[in-house]
Write a structure and sequence with these properties.
Length: about 230
């Protein structure tokens, strides 16, 4: 998002629905999803974010509207007979990244850490691979038919399940390669994710995905200095 995109969106909301925007909910802290919010900044609009996203916005002096309301675990926004359940599932992408379940509409909205129809971003910059798996498993417990995502296709619960199987296969194969004492280049050669070759950017990003998981295992999981893995 940016000022121009937010202006277009605001104009479309007015044109199609002729109703004021009462809530702006930040999905997480990344600028491409929270910039342009000033377009909606009116006395009647409340801005909501998870506490970690709000903290990051404040500490990094992000050029957007500071949230009015923050929450830690979950929060429900009610408008007439419709409700939106906001839920933090732990780390997955960026800071304070949440899911938004439109309960009556049976629609789930998630930004960045579920991107059905496309590969995860390159070397998984800003991603927590274990957290992505945990969070995706958690939202699959929800009752929804339609999935809408940032940087992703619109799809079904089945599509989200398939995306999860990609993440799990990627994670397991790279981990097994490290435990077997293989080099990163060997792991790239041996990891088989061809069942997901229909995902957008597969050819360009599959090795980058493998490299990103390898880096996180080496650094965040500490496998790079485990005594039982030292060769």
């Amino acid at each position: 998002m940016n000022h121009d995109a937010a202006t277009w969106l605001n104009d479309e909301i007015k044109k199609r629905f002729d109703t004021p925007v009462k809530y702006v909910i930040y999905s997480h802290n990344h600028g491409d999803h929270i910039y342009g919010a000033e377009v909606f900044d009116t006395p009647g609009t409340t801005f909501i974010a998870h506490r970690l996203a709000a903290q990051d916005i404040a500490m990094t002096h992000a050029k957007t509207v500071q949230p009015d309301l923050v929450f830690d675990d979950e929060m429900k926004v009610q408008l007439g007979d419709s409700s939106v359940l906001l839920k933090y599932h732990g780390p997955n992408d960026g800071r304070g990244s949440i899911s938004m379940l439109f309960e009556k509409q049976r629609t789930l909205f998630v930004v960045d850490w579920i991107v059905i129809g496309r590969m995860p971003w390159q070397k998984l910059w800003s991603y927590d691979i274990q957290g992505m798996i945990n969070s995706t498993r958690a939202v699959l417990e929800y009752d929804f038919d339609t999935f809408v995502g940032g940087h992703a296709d619109v799809g079904s619960k089945k599509d989200v399940q398939r995306y999860l199987t990609y993440l799990e296969s990627l994670y397991v194969q790279v981990t097994e390669g490290v435990l077997a004492g293989k080099s990163l280049e060997q792991i790239k050669q041996d990891t088989d994710l061809s069942a997901y070759s229909d995902f957008a950017n597969y050819e360009d990003w599959v090795e980058l995905n493998i490299e990103g998981v390898h880096e996180r295992l080496m650094e965040e999981s500490g496998m790079g200095w485990r005594s039982d893995l030292v060769k």
